[in-house]
Amino acid sequence: MNKEIGLRLLRRNLAEPHKFEWAGPSFALRASPKRQLLQLILCQPVVRLLAQHATPVAFAAIVVATPAMAGPYPFTKELDCGTITISLDGEHIIVFDFKTKKTEKCTCKEFGWIQHVSNADVDSYRYDNGVLTSGSQRQGAKSDPSKKNQPTTPPSGTKPEDWDDNPWYGGTTDKTKPKDFDAHPTPQIHISDKPDHPLTKFKTQLVCVAGGEVFLTWEWGPLTKGNESLDKVGGKSVAPP
Predict the structure, then answer these.
(1) Domain locations along the chain
(2) What are the CA-CA distances from residue 203 to residues 1, 92, 231, 237 (Å)?
């Protein structure tokens, strides 16, 4: 590490601790979460620079000014058609909600949530419902969360109750829904999940019922044990769209 460059960066960061940035030959730091700060101060050349040139007060100012690590929830996204909110109900329940609004820019009339689930070590997704019977278990059809338009309507001549590729999420909190809702799910704009299966990962999508356009894909997991705190597992918006 070039000592002069290191000292110049260090002095600037001490002067503006809220903009703590570092770029070195072995790593790059461009934000200020505590875990990145920890990576920085554990680097031996930086420790030496801090020990030689930073006063305890200045070093403390950096730590205090560094915001605490925060999980991704609640997450909110505004669309022309409404507001997406993803939040946690306690540590183990994730809630996906969409509140619609009527605007001239919104051409979609009906929405629903689709959830894809896969083993953690592969990208082999299925719809998260119980439409298909596999031995004594029920599962969804194979799915492809990378498609910008999901298959949201059954083929011509196929009744919804006979549609093996039904993509809609199979869980519901609506007590008015039939007991076999998982086998014949319909579009919902409010869903929740309490995962309990180990080594799984998820992609949850808000889509337009007509045409299957994807408005959001939320990737979360993988869960190792199946019962981890979802805030620690994390999540993020990915393509599509």
Answers:
(1) 3-65, 75-238
(2) 42, 17, 16, 9
